[in-house]
Automatic annotation (TrEMBL), chains A, B, C, D:
Compartments in which it is found: Cytoplasm
Pathway annotation from the record: Carbohydrate biosynthesis; gluconeogenesis; Carbohydrate degradation; glycolysis; D-glyceraldehyde 3-phosphate from glycerone phosphate: step 1/1
Active site: H85 (electrophile), E133 (proton acceptor)
Known function: Involved in the gluconeogenesis. Catalyzes stereospecifically the conversion of dihydroxyacetone phosphate (DHAP) to D-glyceraldehyde-3-phosphate (G3P).
Main location, first listed in the record: cytoplasm
Keyword Cytoplasm: yes
Origin: domain of life: Archaea
Known EC number: 5.3.1.1
Keywords noted in UniProt: Cytoplasm, Gluconeogenesis, Glycolysis, Isomerase
Species name: Natrinema pellirubrum (strain DSM 15624 / CIP 106293 / JCM 10476 / NCIMB 786 / 157)
UniProt-recorded name of the protein: Triosephosphate isomerase
Family: Belongs to the triosephosphate isomerase family.
Gene Ontology CC entries for this record: cytoplasm
Length: 214, 214, 214, 214
């Protein structure tokens, strides 16, 4: 299982969380990574934790003030990027352009989407993975596997119909190790986490609890 | 073949073009329709021409000032709507929401997109049709079948891979009857036209020329 | 006082509300108008009620699929347009462009904004009027004059500092005639209304109650 | 004069340009600064050059994946931020929100806009400075003072009318020291530069030439 901890713009210490991600990663078969804000990518990557960007723009080098360039993110140490997160929704043409920009810079790609139909659409753009984020579960603490297990199974089926090489992540409603196991049982290849780790008093302990049942 | 004449915000008489669409439709096996601006839908539909909206928003009845409601468009006489036209690009989640809104109001749907990858994505959302609009051809007068026939064939293949029930239209680079025939030969089920008819001195003659080779 | 009834995309009969606006307008010194959806402008204007658009785009005649052209709206019978309503927020450059487009088509303009600072900014663009819509009051039923009278007075002062010719409307928290009177006492030259009239069982009675204290 | 070098996403070495900015700043009465991409702010600030962000979002700490938080930018070493650059246009409400977010983090603010009317609007939001960027001059190499000196004088007048404490920068059409002097003569308190320095073979020499006539 792939476990990606999204730090959003939470009031946390990104380096401390990254060190926890790095340390716990060495104790488990799961693959752990952290997605800090753009300004923190370089410092986070220097910890040795696998580092992802939260967003990249569908641009090339040039006149793009205030945009995130895939090459900048990669040079700073990121190995992948989230695309179209529910808090940063993009136009279809820009998701496509961002997948191309990320591939150009050798970044892995996870395209987020709301429901199985959109997951099929996202998979058709050829990313490495897609993440299903049912809007009704985002930030609720209700595990998707408990609230609506069909949405994960349907997303897995929708992606497989379009491109069986695209992995499906569960992008909302994950806070415990049991949730991670349940997501895997439904066919997910990984999970996106956020506040459960990023806002924990002890991020390392929170991660250890998460991977314990894996 | 389906021939949809998009009036955009051209300085034309929408009723005169609609009457030409209606009259020429009766003379051909092709299916002709016209897409006027929202303010003109009712008057255009009253001509008896098949009428489409240029855009609908992913909303329901409610607090949505300045948005286009599918039910309003349908009540005014439209039978379908363009979605995500290159001049009105939408977020992926909003294309999905707009397809649902249009279906709720019994409107047919054509989702536009730039290239075969995006056409696959659009087809995954379950519209009635998709339209491929290569950005490099929009407004150039160069027929897509001549400039880049692969893009139409690849779009047809991409849509068929995802959902064989989704028709593919050629949405740029069509100005003559030969272009329409060529698009059909490449697998397209129809074409989107604009200035060639809307800005013609004699829209009826322009349409007659277009459908003559069909 | 100017009283503009915004029909949004409410499930109401736009012609029935327009007839109520027209009839009550003849009984009062207040100026009454109605803002229907784009598809309804022509039918609403034909009632004889003063008709406004809910939105216009910063465009000219041309390749603008799915956009609202000022000339189309004016030709359909509208005499003015809302701009930057809280449900249709625009970029600063597009508010400016829309004010110019509306002026080109002889439409009156009301630019909406959230707070006194933004009201000053909106007034600097030279519209006929601005409307202050404190986000915390929109749709609450709490009259702005009771919840936060300072915001209206501050908005009136901010607009007057920048351009004393720009009228200030109160764009949220108005549902009774007393609210309208209170808004006028705070310096507002009018009010924006919505559900209180549009969703009333008897729109004419609702309007009569509203203008009774004026 | 304030001279801000915007690195956009140009293929330049941000640290090398920053060192040039730092070194030339010590030789002149002009104030020099550099605006790198978000991922480079920390490394650029470590050179000792005055560092600005290219963009900040109107957000606080929280669930804002893929957004630029003012506090992150300030902690990384930036002392100010561009807002609403022509390549990153914002909604009016978001310009206002971004000015507030920047002020919360003690960042200086420059709000960009197209023309004198928008400059007046930007000034009404209370930033430290505004920058006028006539769209027809962006990236042309034609100095604004030569092509259209009125736009700078009118922008200075428009800002002064609204708030005399807001400085006006010239944000397009500057490439030589004479252009900087001419902008100052028209009332500008500074200039935004980009490719002339960022893409120069020798950024330090380019900057020395620019400040020589000051």
């Amino acid at each position: 299982m792939f476990v990606l901890v999204n730090l959003k713009t939470y009031p946390c210490d990104p380096v401390a969380v990254a060190e926890a991600v790095r340390d716990v990663d060495e104790t488990t078969d799961a693959r752990l990574a952290v997605a800090p804000a753009a300004t923190h990518i370089e410092r986070v990557a220097e910890t040795g934790a696998e580092t992802w960007a939260q967003h990249v723009d569908p641009i090339d080098h040039g006149s793009n003030t205030g945009h995130a360039l895939a090459e900048h993110v990669a040079d700073a140490g990121a190995v992948g990027t989230l695309i179209n997160h529910s808090e940063r929704r993009l136009k279809l043409a820009d998701i496509d352009g961002t997948v191309r920009a990320a591939q150009r810079a050798d970044l892995e790609t996870i395209v987020c989407a709301n429901n199985p139909a959109q997951i099929g659409a996202a998979a058709a753009l050829g990313p490495d993975a897609v993440a299903v984020e049912p809007p009704e579960l985002i930030g609720t603490g209700t595990p998707v596997s408990q609230a609506d297990p069909d949405v994960v199974e349907d997303a897995v089926a929708a992606a497989a119909d379009v491109d069986p090489d695209v992995s499906v992540l569960c992008g909302a409603g994950i806070s415990t190790g049991d949730d991670v196991v349940a997501a895997g049982d439904l066919g997910a290849g990984g999970v996106l986490l956020a506040s459960g780790v990023a806002k924990a008093d002890d991020p390392k302990a929170a991660l250890e609890d998460l991977v314990a049942p894996l």
